[in-house]
Protein backbone atom coordinates (compact mmCIF):
# COMPACT_ATOMS: atom_id res chain seq x y z
CA UNK A 1 0.00 0.00 0.00
CA UNK A 2 1.51 3.32 -1.10
CA UNK A 3 0.73 6.13 1.34
CA UNK A 4 2.06 9.31 2.96
CA UNK A 5 3.45 9.98 6.41
CA UNK A 6 0.36 12.03 7.30
CA UNK A 7 -1.83 8.99 6.62
CA UNK A 8 0.17 6.24 8.37
CA UNK A 9 -2.17 6.39 11.37
CA UNK A 10 -4.66 4.53 9.18
CA UNK A 11 -2.26 1.63 8.54
CA UNK A 12 -0.96 0.53 11.96
CA UNK A 13 0.29 -3.05 11.71
CA UNK A 14 0.19 -2.98 7.91
CA UNK A 15 2.96 -2.88 5.33
CA UNK A 16 3.19 0.40 3.41
CA UNK A 17 5.48 2.08 0.90
CA UNK A 18 6.39 5.76 1.32
CA UNK A 19 8.31 8.00 -1.05
CA UNK A 20 10.55 10.16 1.15
CA UNK A 21 13.75 12.12 1.62
CA UNK A 22 16.32 11.40 4.31
CA UNK A 23 16.56 14.43 6.59
CA UNK A 24 19.03 12.81 8.99
CA UNK A 25 20.20 9.41 10.24
CA UNK A 26 22.18 7.66 12.92
CA UNK A 27 23.28 4.07 13.09
CA UNK A 28 25.07 1.52 15.21
CA UNK A 29 26.41 -1.87 14.29
CA UNK A 30 23.03 -3.57 14.21
CA UNK A 31 20.42 -0.85 13.70
CA UNK A 32 19.95 2.30 11.61
CA UNK A 33 17.52 5.10 12.44
CA UNK A 34 16.37 7.02 9.37
CA UNK A 35 14.67 10.40 9.87
CA UNK A 36 12.31 10.55 6.90
CA UNK A 37 10.16 13.31 5.48
CA UNK A 38 7.76 13.33 2.55
CA UNK A 39 6.28 16.83 2.61
CA UNK A 40 3.26 15.76 4.66
CA UNK A 41 5.27 15.08 7.80
CA UNK A 42 8.26 13.43 9.49
CA UNK A 43 8.65 9.85 10.71
CA UNK A 44 11.47 7.67 11.97
CA UNK A 45 12.31 4.57 9.97
CA UNK A 46 14.03 1.78 11.91
CA UNK A 47 16.24 -0.66 9.98
CA UNK A 48 17.27 -3.71 12.01
CA UNK A 49 20.19 -5.64 10.53
CA UNK A 50 18.83 -9.06 11.39
CA UNK A 51 15.46 -8.32 9.73
CA UNK A 52 16.64 -7.12 6.30
CA UNK A 53 19.10 -8.32 3.66
CA UNK A 54 22.73 -7.29 3.94
CA UNK A 55 22.37 -5.09 0.84
CA UNK A 56 19.42 -3.20 2.33
CA UNK A 57 21.20 -2.65 5.64
CA UNK A 58 24.38 -1.40 4.00
CA UNK A 59 22.33 0.91 1.75
CA UNK A 60 20.50 2.30 4.80
CA UNK A 61 23.80 2.97 6.57
CA UNK A 62 25.30 4.67 3.52
CA UNK A 63 22.38 6.99 2.73
CA UNK A 64 23.30 10.68 2.60
CA UNK A 65 21.29 13.66 3.81
CA UNK A 66 18.42 14.61 1.45
CA UNK A 67 18.77 11.51 -0.72
CA UNK A 68 15.40 10.44 -2.09
CA UNK A 69 14.11 6.90 -1.67
CA UNK A 70 11.18 4.53 -1.40
CA UNK A 71 10.91 2.79 1.95
CA UNK A 72 8.72 -0.22 2.62
CA UNK A 73 7.83 -1.48 6.06
CA UNK A 74 5.33 -1.99 8.85
CA UNK A 75 3.72 0.97 10.64
CA UNK A 76 3.76 0.66 14.42
CA UNK A 77 2.74 2.96 17.24
CA UNK A 78 5.55 4.67 19.14
CA UNK A 79 4.63 6.58 22.29
CA UNK A 80 8.14 8.05 22.55
CA UNK A 81 7.73 9.89 19.25
CA UNK A 82 5.95 13.28 19.12
CA UNK A 83 4.36 11.98 15.92
CA UNK A 84 3.16 8.79 17.62
CA UNK A 85 4.25 6.28 14.95
CA UNK A 86 7.38 4.80 13.40
CA UNK A 87 8.17 2.65 10.39
CA UNK A 88 9.86 -0.73 10.84
CA UNK A 89 11.70 -0.80 7.51
CA UNK A 90 11.93 -3.99 5.43
CA UNK A 91 13.20 -2.57 2.17
CA UNK A 92 14.86 0.58 0.84
CA UNK A 93 15.04 1.63 -2.82
CA UNK A 94 17.33 4.56 -3.63
CA UNK A 95 15.90 7.07 -6.12
CA UNK A 96 18.62 9.73 -6.06
CA UNK A 97 21.79 10.00 -4.02
CA UNK A 98 22.33 13.52 -2.69
CA UNK A 99 25.90 14.71 -2.23
CA UNK A 100 27.30 17.57 -0.16
CA UNK A 101 23.94 18.92 0.99
CA UNK A 102 24.82 22.43 2.21
CA UNK A 103 22.50 22.70 5.25
CA UNK A 104 23.91 20.24 7.74
CA UNK A 105 22.67 19.52 11.28
CA UNK A 106 24.71 22.37 12.78
CA UNK A 107 24.30 26.10 13.32
CA UNK A 108 24.22 28.23 10.17
CA UNK A 109 24.09 32.01 9.90
CA UNK A 110 20.86 33.73 8.84
CA UNK A 111 22.30 35.04 5.56
CA UNK A 112 23.55 31.57 4.64
CA UNK A 113 20.13 30.08 5.34
CA UNK A 114 18.40 32.85 3.38
CA UNK A 115 20.74 32.26 0.42
CA UNK A 116 19.61 28.63 0.58
CA UNK A 117 15.96 29.34 1.30
CA UNK A 118 14.94 26.92 -1.46
CA UNK A 119 16.53 24.15 0.65
CA UNK A 120 15.95 25.60 4.13
CA UNK A 121 12.21 25.12 3.57
CA UNK A 122 12.82 21.37 3.95
CA UNK A 123 13.77 21.65 7.64
CA UNK A 124 11.35 20.53 10.33
CA UNK A 125 10.93 24.02 11.77
CA UNK A 126 10.31 25.72 8.44
CA UNK A 127 7.94 22.92 7.47
CA UNK A 128 5.98 23.57 10.68
CA UNK A 129 5.73 27.33 10.00
CA UNK A 130 4.48 26.70 6.46
CA UNK A 131 1.86 24.25 7.75
CA UNK A 132 0.63 26.88 10.23
CA UNK A 133 0.49 29.42 7.39
CA UNK A 134 -1.52 26.98 5.30
CA UNK A 135 -3.98 26.37 8.12
CA UNK A 136 -4.53 30.12 8.58
CA UNK A 137 -5.25 30.41 4.84
CA UNK A 138 -7.61 27.42 4.91
CA UNK A 139 -9.45 28.77 7.96
CA UNK A 140 -9.66 32.23 6.36
CA UNK A 141 -11.54 30.89 3.36
CA UNK A 142 -13.73 28.79 5.62
CA UNK A 143 -14.62 31.73 7.89
CA UNK A 144 -15.56 34.12 5.10
CA UNK A 145 -17.36 31.51 3.03
CA UNK A 146 -19.38 30.45 6.10
CA UNK A 147 -20.31 34.07 6.79
CA UNK A 148 -21.66 35.01 3.39
CA UNK A 149 -18.63 36.78 1.90
CA UNK A 150 -17.74 36.60 -1.80
CA UNK A 151 -14.08 36.43 -2.80
CA UNK A 152 -13.08 39.16 -5.26
CA UNK A 153 -9.63 39.61 -6.78
CA UNK A 154 -8.54 43.26 -7.10
CA UNK A 155 -5.84 44.22 -9.61
CA UNK A 156 -2.17 44.18 -8.68
CA UNK A 157 -1.27 46.87 -11.24
CA UNK A 158 -2.98 50.16 -10.44
CA UNK A 159 -2.88 53.74 -11.68
CA UNK A 160 -3.37 55.27 -8.22
CA UNK A 161 -2.90 54.38 -4.58
CA UNK A 162 -5.19 54.34 -1.53
CA UNK A 163 -2.58 56.06 0.64
CA UNK A 164 -0.47 58.03 -1.86
CA UNK A 165 2.43 56.81 -3.99
CA UNK A 166 5.48 57.56 -1.83
CA UNK A 167 6.06 53.91 -0.90
CA UNK A 168 4.90 52.26 -4.11
CA UNK A 169 6.88 50.43 -6.77
CA UNK A 170 6.60 52.35 -10.01
CA UNK A 171 6.46 50.69 -13.41
CA UNK A 172 5.35 51.57 -16.92
CA UNK A 173 2.03 50.30 -18.21
CA UNK A 174 2.76 50.80 -21.89
CA UNK A 175 2.68 54.63 -22.09
CA UNK A 176 1.13 55.19 -18.66
CA UNK A 177 2.53 55.21 -15.13
CA UNK A 178 1.47 52.28 -12.98
CA UNK A 179 2.20 50.98 -9.50
CA UNK A 180 2.29 47.62 -7.76
CA UNK A 181 -0.63 47.57 -5.38
CA UNK A 182 -0.10 48.26 -1.69
CA UNK A 183 -3.75 47.43 -0.97
CA UNK A 184 -6.81 46.27 -2.85
CA UNK A 185 -9.10 48.23 -0.55
CA UNK A 186 -10.51 50.83 -2.94
CA UNK A 187 -11.44 48.15 -5.46
CA UNK A 188 -12.93 46.02 -2.70
CA UNK A 189 -15.17 48.93 -1.73
CA UNK A 190 -16.52 48.94 -5.28
CA UNK A 191 -17.04 45.19 -5.06
CA UNK A 192 -18.91 45.55 -1.75
CA UNK A 193 -21.35 47.96 -3.42
CA UNK A 194 -22.08 45.18 -5.93
CA UNK A 195 -21.91 42.05 -3.77
CA UNK A 196 -22.51 43.22 -0.19
CA UNK A 197 -19.75 41.43 1.75
CA UNK A 198 -16.50 40.63 -0.04
CA UNK A 199 -12.92 39.68 0.75
CA UNK A 200 -9.68 39.50 -1.18
CA UNK A 201 -6.52 37.54 -0.53
CA UNK A 202 -3.45 38.42 -2.52
CA UNK A 203 0.05 39.90 -2.67
CA UNK A 204 0.74 43.53 -1.84
CA UNK A 205 3.91 45.57 -2.12
CA UNK A 206 5.50 48.35 -0.06
CA UNK A 207 8.63 50.14 -1.24
CA UNK A 208 9.50 50.89 2.37
CA UNK A 209 13.19 50.78 3.24
CA UNK A 210 12.70 49.00 6.52
CA UNK A 211 14.79 46.21 8.01
CA UNK A 212 12.72 45.37 11.08
CA UNK A 213 11.57 41.87 11.97
CA UNK A 214 7.97 42.94 11.18
CA UNK A 215 8.45 44.16 7.61
CA UNK A 216 8.53 42.56 4.18
CA UNK A 217 8.63 44.24 0.78
CA UNK A 218 6.14 41.75 -0.66
CA UNK A 219 3.49 40.31 1.65
CA UNK A 220 -0.02 38.89 1.54
CA UNK A 221 -3.17 40.62 2.76
CA UNK A 222 -6.69 39.49 3.56
CA UNK A 223 -8.97 42.48 2.91
CA UNK A 224 -12.72 42.27 3.62
CA UNK A 225 -15.14 45.11 2.85
CA UNK A 226 -18.75 45.19 4.00
CA UNK A 227 -21.68 47.34 2.85
CA UNK A 228 -24.02 48.60 5.60
CA UNK A 229 -21.40 47.77 8.27
CA UNK A 230 -20.42 50.58 10.61
CA UNK A 231 -17.47 50.91 12.98
CA UNK A 232 -18.72 48.59 15.74
CA UNK A 233 -19.89 45.99 13.22
CA UNK A 234 -16.43 46.03 11.70
CA UNK A 235 -14.65 45.38 15.01
CA UNK A 236 -16.95 42.46 15.72
CA UNK A 237 -16.09 40.77 12.42
CA UNK A 238 -12.37 41.30 13.07
CA UNK A 239 -12.33 39.73 16.51
CA UNK A 240 -14.49 36.81 15.41
CA UNK A 241 -12.24 36.19 12.38
CA UNK A 242 -8.98 36.34 14.34
CA UNK A 243 -10.40 34.10 17.07
CA UNK A 244 -11.49 31.62 14.41
CA UNK A 245 -8.12 31.31 12.70
CA UNK A 246 -6.21 31.07 15.98
CA UNK A 247 -8.43 28.31 17.34
CA UNK A 248 -8.30 26.49 13.99
CA UNK A 249 -4.49 26.43 14.25
CA UNK A 250 -4.66 25.26 17.86
CA UNK A 251 -7.01 22.46 16.85
CA UNK A 252 -5.36 21.31 13.63
CA UNK A 253 -1.64 22.12 14.05
CA UNK A 254 -0.73 20.88 17.52
CA UNK A 255 2.19 18.79 16.24
CA UNK A 256 3.59 21.80 14.35
CA UNK A 257 3.08 24.17 17.29
CA UNK A 258 4.88 21.69 19.57
CA UNK A 259 7.72 21.47 17.04
CA UNK A 260 7.98 25.26 17.22
CA UNK A 261 7.86 25.26 21.03
CA UNK A 262 4.73 27.42 21.03
CA UNK A 263 2.92 27.96 24.33
CA UNK A 264 -0.57 26.70 23.49
CA UNK A 265 -2.08 28.20 26.65
CA UNK A 266 -1.45 31.69 25.27
CA UNK A 267 -3.24 30.90 22.03
CA UNK A 268 -6.16 29.18 23.75
CA UNK A 269 -7.02 32.51 25.44
CA UNK A 270 -7.52 34.23 22.08
CA UNK A 271 -11.30 34.30 21.89
CA UNK A 272 -13.68 37.16 21.12
CA UNK A 273 -14.38 39.76 22.39
CA UNK A 274 -11.06 41.62 22.47
CA UNK A 275 -10.19 44.55 24.75
CA UNK A 276 -10.17 48.09 23.37
CA UNK A 277 -8.18 51.20 24.16
CA UNK A 278 -9.00 54.65 22.80
CA UNK A 279 -6.02 56.49 21.33
CA UNK A 280 -6.40 59.20 24.00
CA UNK A 281 -6.12 56.57 26.73
CA UNK A 282 -3.21 54.89 24.97
CA UNK A 283 -1.25 58.15 25.08
CA UNK A 284 -1.97 58.50 28.81
CA UNK A 285 -1.00 54.88 29.41
CA UNK A 286 2.30 55.29 27.56
CA UNK A 287 3.15 58.39 29.57
CA UNK A 288 2.52 56.40 32.75
CA UNK A 289 4.87 53.72 31.43
CA UNK A 290 7.65 56.27 30.97
CA UNK A 291 7.32 56.94 27.23
CA UNK A 292 7.82 60.70 27.47
CA UNK A 293 8.74 60.93 23.77
CA UNK A 294 5.18 60.25 22.54
CA UNK A 295 2.69 63.10 22.18
CA UNK A 296 -0.94 63.27 21.11
CA UNK A 297 -0.95 63.25 17.32
CA UNK A 298 2.04 60.89 16.97
CA UNK A 299 1.76 57.45 15.46
CA UNK A 300 2.89 54.51 17.56
CA UNK A 301 6.11 52.63 16.96
CA UNK A 302 6.96 49.06 17.85
CA UNK A 303 7.98 49.81 21.48
CA UNK A 304 4.72 51.67 22.11
CA UNK A 305 2.57 48.91 20.61
CA UNK A 306 4.45 46.27 22.59
CA UNK A 307 4.00 48.14 25.88
CA UNK A 308 0.24 48.37 25.29
CA UNK A 309 -0.05 44.74 24.15
CA UNK A 310 1.84 43.48 27.20
CA UNK A 311 -1.03 44.68 29.38
CA UNK A 312 -3.38 42.12 27.82
CA UNK A 313 -3.37 38.40 27.11
CA UNK A 314 -5.47 38.85 23.96
CA UNK A 315 -5.07 41.09 20.92
CA UNK A 316 -6.13 44.65 21.73
CA UNK A 317 -7.84 47.26 19.55
CA UNK A 318 -6.41 50.77 19.64
CA UNK A 319 -9.23 52.95 18.33
CA UNK A 320 -9.95 56.53 17.21
CA UNK A 321 -6.56 57.66 15.94
CA UNK A 322 -6.01 61.32 15.01
CA UNK A 323 -7.36 62.18 11.58
CA UNK A 324 -4.06 63.86 10.62
CA UNK A 325 -2.07 60.60 10.69
CA UNK A 326 -4.60 58.40 8.91
CA UNK A 327 -5.56 58.02 5.21
CA UNK A 328 -8.07 60.27 3.47
CA UNK A 329 -10.89 57.72 3.24
CA UNK A 330 -11.57 57.18 6.95
CA UNK A 331 -14.88 58.33 8.45
CA UNK A 332 -14.53 61.07 11.09
CA UNK A 333 -15.92 60.42 14.55
CA UNK A 334 -19.34 62.16 14.60
CA UNK A 335 -18.60 63.50 18.10
CA UNK A 336 -15.05 64.73 17.38
CA UNK A 337 -13.66 66.09 14.15
CA UNK A 338 -10.01 65.44 15.11
CA UNK A 339 -10.22 61.61 15.23
CA UNK A 340 -11.53 58.95 12.85
CA UNK A 341 -13.52 55.75 13.25
CA UNK A 342 -10.59 53.40 12.86
CA UNK A 343 -8.78 50.72 14.82
CA UNK A 344 -5.48 48.87 14.71
CA UNK A 345 -5.45 45.38 16.19
CA UNK A 346 -2.23 44.77 18.11
CA UNK A 347 -1.13 41.17 18.66
CA UNK A 348 0.18 40.03 22.04
CA UNK A 349 3.82 39.18 22.81
CA UNK A 350 5.38 42.02 20.84
CA UNK A 351 4.22 41.04 17.34
CA UNK A 352 2.70 44.44 16.60
CA UNK A 353 -0.18 45.50 14.40
CA UNK A 354 -1.80 42.66 12.46
CA UNK A 355 -4.97 44.49 11.33
CA UNK A 356 -5.76 48.03 10.28
CA UNK A 357 -9.38 48.90 9.60
CA UNK A 358 -11.96 51.65 9.61
CA UNK A 359 -15.38 52.81 8.65
CA UNK A 360 -15.02 54.47 5.23
CA UNK A 361 -16.33 57.92 4.32
CA UNK A 362 -19.61 57.54 2.46
CA UNK A 363 -20.38 61.24 1.89
CA UNK A 364 -19.40 62.46 -1.58
CA UNK A 365 -18.49 66.04 -0.65
CA UNK A 366 -16.42 65.04 2.39
CA UNK A 367 -14.47 62.43 0.45
CA UNK A 368 -13.82 64.87 -2.40
CA UNK A 369 -12.62 67.47 0.09
CA UNK A 370 -10.23 64.97 1.69
CA UNK A 371 -8.81 63.86 -1.65
CA UNK A 372 -8.05 67.49 -2.50
CA UNK A 373 -6.61 68.15 0.96
CA UNK A 374 -4.17 65.25 0.47
CA UNK A 375 -3.09 66.68 -2.92
CA UNK A 376 -4.29 63.60 -4.76
CA UNK A 377 -5.42 63.89 -8.40
CA UNK A 378 -9.22 63.97 -8.55
CA UNK A 379 -9.31 62.45 -12.02
CA UNK A 380 -7.52 59.31 -10.75
CA UNK A 381 -10.18 58.88 -8.07
CA UNK A 382 -13.23 59.73 -10.18
CA UNK A 383 -14.38 56.10 -10.17
CA UNK A 384 -13.91 55.93 -6.37
CA UNK A 385 -16.03 59.05 -5.94
CA UNK A 386 -18.71 57.45 -8.15
CA UNK A 387 -19.32 54.95 -5.35
CA UNK A 388 -20.58 57.91 -3.27
CA UNK A 389 -22.68 59.33 -6.13
CA UNK A 390 -24.76 56.27 -6.92
CA UNK A 391 -26.38 54.70 -3.89
CA UNK A 392 -23.75 55.42 -1.26
CA UNK A 393 -24.12 53.56 2.05
CA UNK A 394 -22.13 53.34 5.30
CA UNK A 395 -19.48 50.68 4.85
CA UNK A 396 -16.37 49.37 6.60
CA UNK A 397 -13.42 47.09 6.07
CA UNK A 398 -10.00 46.04 7.22
CA UNK A 399 -6.77 44.43 6.12
CA UNK A 400 -4.93 41.62 7.92
CA UNK A 401 -1.25 41.06 7.16
CA UNK A 402 -0.78 37.33 6.78
CA UNK A 403 2.92 37.10 7.57
CA UNK A 404 2.75 39.03 10.83
CA UNK A 405 -0.21 36.90 11.83
CA UNK A 406 1.69 33.71 11.02
CA UNK A 407 4.66 35.00 13.03
CA UNK A 408 2.49 35.68 16.07
CA UNK A 409 0.49 32.45 16.01
CA UNK A 410 3.53 30.26 15.31
CA UNK A 411 5.80 32.13 17.72
CA UNK A 412 8.30 32.92 14.94
CA UNK A 413 10.49 35.92 15.69
CA UNK A 414 11.02 37.29 12.17
CA UNK A 415 8.51 37.51 9.31
CA UNK A 416 11.16 36.34 6.85
CA UNK A 417 10.43 32.77 8.03
CA UNK A 418 6.67 33.08 7.54
CA UNK A 419 6.61 33.32 3.74
CA UNK A 420 8.17 30.72 1.42
CA UNK A 421 10.48 33.13 -0.43
CA UNK A 422 10.75 36.46 1.39
CA UNK A 423 11.43 39.71 -0.39
CA UNK A 424 13.46 41.95 1.89
CA UNK A 425 15.22 45.29 1.48
CA UNK A 426 18.44 43.68 0.20
CA UNK A 427 17.13 40.31 -0.91
CA UNK A 428 15.60 39.30 -4.23
CA UNK A 429 17.27 35.85 -4.34
CA UNK A 430 16.31 33.07 -4.51
UniProtKB/TrEMBL annotation:
CDD domains linked to this entry: AsnRS_cyto_like_N, AsxRS_core
Main location group: cytoplasm
Its EC number(s): 6.1.1.22
TM ranges: none
Keywords: Aminoacyl-tRNA synthetase, ATP-binding, Cytoplasm, Ligase, Nucleotide-binding, Protein biosynthesis
Gene Ontology biological-process entries: asparaginyl-tRNA aminoacylation
Subcellular location: Cytoplasm
SUPFAM superfamilies, A to Z: Class II aaRS and biotin synthetases, Nucleic acid-binding proteins
Aminoacyl-transfer RNA synthetases class-II family profile domain span: 130-430
One GO term describing the cellular component: cytoplasm
The keyword Nucleotide-binding belongs to this UniProt entry's keyword annotation: yes
UniProt catalytic activity: tRNA(Asn) + L-asparagine + ATP = L-asparaginyl-tRNA(Asn) + AMP + diphosphate + H(+)
InterPro entries, per the entry: Aa-tRNA-synt_II, aa-tRNA-synth_II, aa-tRNA-synth_II/BPL/LPL, Asn-tRNA-ligase, Asp/Asn-tRNA-synth_IIb, NA-bd_OB-fold, NA-bd_OB_tRNA
Gene Ontology MF terms in the entry: asparagine-tRNA ligase activity; ATP binding; catalytic activity, acting on a protein; nucleic acid binding; transferase activity
Pfam families: tRNA-synt_2, tRNA_anti-codon
Family: Belongs to the class-II aminoacyl-tRNA synthetase family.
Subunit structure of this chain's protein: Homodimer.
NCBIfam families documented for this protein: asnS, PRK03932.1, PRK05159.1
HAMAP family for the chain: Asn_tRNA_synth (MF_00534)
Protein's UniProt name: Asparagine--tRNA ligase
Amino acid sequence: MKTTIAEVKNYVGQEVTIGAWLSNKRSSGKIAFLQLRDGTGFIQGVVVKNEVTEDVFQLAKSLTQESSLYVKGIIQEDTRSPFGYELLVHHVELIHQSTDYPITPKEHGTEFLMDHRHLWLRSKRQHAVMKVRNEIIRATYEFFNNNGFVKVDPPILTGSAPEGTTELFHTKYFEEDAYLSQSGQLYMEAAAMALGKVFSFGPTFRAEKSKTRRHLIEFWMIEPEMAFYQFEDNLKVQEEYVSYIVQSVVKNCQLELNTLGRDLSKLEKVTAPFPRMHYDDAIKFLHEQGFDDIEWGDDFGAPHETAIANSFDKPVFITHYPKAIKPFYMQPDPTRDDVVLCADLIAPEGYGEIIGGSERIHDFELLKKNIEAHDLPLDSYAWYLDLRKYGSVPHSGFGLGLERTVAWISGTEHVRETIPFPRLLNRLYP
